[in-house]
Amino acid sequence: MYPEEERLPMRPALFAVFALSLLTATGAALTPARAAVEINVNRGVLQPLPIAIPSMQGADSRASQLGDEVSKVVSADLERSGFFKPLSPDSFIQRGLNVDDTPNYNDWKTINAQALVNGRVTVEADGRLRVDFRLWDTFAEKQILGLQFISTGEDWRRIAHKVSDAVYKALTGQDGYFDTRIVFVSESGPRKSKVKRLGIMDQDGANPSYLTEGNYLVMTPRFSPNGRQITYMALRADSARVYLLDLETNRQESLGTFQGMVFAPRFSPDGSKVALSVDRGGNTDIYVMDLRSRSSTRVTSDAAIDTSPSFSPDGRQLVFNSDRGGSPQLYVMNTDGSNVHRISFGQGRYTTPVWSPKGDYIAFTRQAGGGFHIGVMKPDGSDERSLTDSYLDESPAWAPNGRVLIFSRETGHGSGPRLFTVDISGQNLRAAPYNLPATDPTWSPLLK
Asked: CB burial class (10 A; 0-12, 13-18, 19+) of residue 123?
C-alpha cells in the first residue's frame, strides 16, 4: 500500500474561534440556575414548549439586522428539534426588551411563553461580533442562563447555533446538536449516468458546497471524531480507494491500494484507526487500519459478506452486518475479531449499523414487509423498534448528542432520494432542509 495526496479546490474556512463568558443581569459570572421549566426528552416529543424569541437588539442598523437574523436562526433550530414551539412575534406584548433589563413577566405569561430568549448584538470596532443573550423562566420569574459569544462577523450563523445549543441543553438537560455540519453524497443527472459529489452544509441546510468535483463516484463519507477530516470511498474506472479529506487544508490522501474492492470506512472514536471492508474474489471481510503506521489487521475471516463496521464509543467493539447466517444480520465483536455474536433476530434483512455516540443504541436499516425501516436496538439486541417505514429508507447517522438520526429516503415516485431526520422516539419525522437528491449522510460532532 502507498499514500497518495491530492489537493482539492480551495473552499472557505470551515472553522472559527469563539470566546464565551457567562453573564448575570449585572454582567458578572454566574452558575446557571436550574430551570423550573424543563422538558422530559425521554418521553419523546409530546407537547412542544412555548418559547418566545424576540429579535435581538442592536445599537445600529447593521447590528439590528444581524440581531433579527440570529433570532430567526435560533427559532428555526429549536422548532426543528420538535421540543419547542416558538411563538409568533405578532403575539408579543412587551417590545424592545433590552438584554440588561428584567422582562415584564406578566406580559409573557399572558401569551403562555413559558421560556423567553432575548439578547443584544454588537459589532465591535475591529469587526468582531458580540452576542449577549439571556434565557428566562417566565413563570418562575427568574433567569436560567446568561451567555456571551464573540467571533468574527461572518460567523453570525454559528453564534446563533451556539445560542440554540445552550438553550436546548438548559431546558432538556442534553447536549445540543445545532452547531454542526452534515456531509452527504449529492446526486445529479440521469439514473444511468449519475454524478455523485461529496456535499457539505450546516445542519440547518445553510452554506451548502461541494467537496469533490464529480468526475468519479463517491460513497459512504464519515466524519472523524474531531470533525476536521472525512473518510470516504471513491470509485473510479480503474480502482476503488478509501480517502482521507482534511477540511481545513483541502488535502486528500489515499489510505493505500488494496487487493480487491475497498469500501465502508469509519473512524475509531479516538481517530487513530479506520475500520473498512475489503472484497476479494467475492469474499468480503473487515479490516482495521492504524492511521499512523498504515498497517492493516484482518478481523473477520469467513466465507460470508462482512461489511459496514462501526465502532462502539469506547473503541472496544465493532458492530457490523454479515450474511453468515443466510441473510444480512447484525453482529457485534471485539475489535480484534473475538467474541462474535449475533444481535438481530427479527424478520427481514439488517444492514448499515451505526453505534450511538452515547453507546446506548445501535441504529440500522431493516428491509422487511415490502418496505425499508430505520430502527434502533440496544447493543445486546434488546429493545428493538422501528422509527420509520417507507419505500426506501436507509443509511442512518446519529447527531452528536445521540438523540436525532438523519437518513436518506426514496418514495418510489421518481423524485430521487432526499435527506430526512427523526427523533429516537420515532416522532418528529421531517425532511431535512436540503431539497436536492442526496444519500449517505453523516453528522459531524459539535464544532469547536
From this structure: middle
Mean pLDDT of 381-385: 97
Backbone angles phi, psi at 281, to 5 degrees: 60, 35
Burial of 205 (0-12, 13-18, 19+ CB in 10 A): middle
What is the C-alpha radius of gyration for the chain, rounded to an integer number of angstroms?
23
Q: Per mean pLDDT, which range of 4-8, 84-88, 132-136, 359-363 is the poorest?
A: 4-8
Task: Please check the confidence at residue 28 and state whether its pLDDT lies above 60.
Answer: no
Closest CA relative to residue 174, chosen from 334, 31, 39: 39
Residue among 432, 372, 422, 418 at smallest CA distance from 186: 418
Average pLDDT over residues 355-372: 96
Domains of the chain listed by start with CATH number? 32-172 (3.40.50.10070), 181-443 (2.120.10.30)
The fraction of the chain above a pLDDT of 90, given in percent, is: 79
Residue 394 burial (CB count, 10 A): 21
